[in-house]
Amino acid sequence: FFARILVDQGKTYHAVGLGTLYAVINLPHYMKLKAFAVGWLTPLAYTRLGFLLVFLLSVILLFRPFVKWSKRDVLFYLPLLGLLAGLNTVFGYLSFGSEPQDGALRLNVSGSQFQRHLGLIVQAPDLGLEKTVFSYCEILDDRYGIFSIEGQPWTPESPRNYYNPDLASDDTSLLVQTVENGRREIWRSKGVGKPPAFLIEGATPSWEPNGTGFVFERGGKLYIFDVVTAVETWLPVDGNCYDPRYSTQGDSLVYGVKEKDGTSLRYLDLSTFTEKILFRSKGHIESPQFSHDGRKIVFSADLENSQDIWALDLVKNTLLRLTLNSALDRDPVWDQAHSRIVFASDRGRGLGCTTLFWIPIPEELR
Known about the structure:
Strand content: 35-45%
Oligomer: single chain
Distance between the termini: 64 Å
Shape: elongated
Radius of gyration: 26 Å
């Protein structure tokens, strides 16, 4: 549009230059510079914004002769724009400062790529005996792999994406979910750096504490797979189930169920196959996990117009909200060894660019 006006004015070289600049704006500079966009070099992640500013200044310079502003116009509109910008800044700070604080701190992950402000997604953390793993991808690459808290890859480089890691209690074996031709599958890696191998069709696996099998979901149904005999067993549970998780004692499960008007959090006693509805919500409940003693459950839920971390005390039958931020908080795991709850959040970043945070376990849940 601008180039056509310049061509009509006989300024062909200016039109070509502006068109070239517009093309440059849309090149993937971030993909080449993302590894350097850390600390003081973070602006390298915003090269597109920089070129947009150059484009704006170029347009102002090229079309200034067409704009007929008097001194009176400038003296009137410039202070008005300054006032609007000031009010916007003040309201922004007031809004930011009024948000309740929940004491969450960022969990440090080794490696420069995990220190960046934007462009990466770190989610689905899981704990073993001593190791912590998570799923990671670059937001523009969309290639998911499993990494450790030390910043080292657990799964080797592969054209396949790996999600929802579940680490065995002795740190020796890792279950992951992947997708093959639209079919969700569960694979197993038997050590750091060892390529996962196919086990069974399904999703969101959770190891049994003794390491002989795991629970998983397929088509809204729950199954247990024995890794020794390679036999799967269907669990007689009705409903469209998802996100199953073993208790640390291995005697019960917690999982979500999709219902007509929302979701519910449910508990299954594996000795009697007695199911109990713990909590119902019109929002989405996900990623439930037992505490070390099996008496509390931490989960993520879209309640009160915000995706937050919640805890349910099974003994006292009390519900406690753990995070208060307006950001997306999800994938909580109970880290008993460090008296904390680790979760993924895009707070301070937005756009779903999550990284790991932690909060201390509240006194009410100890």
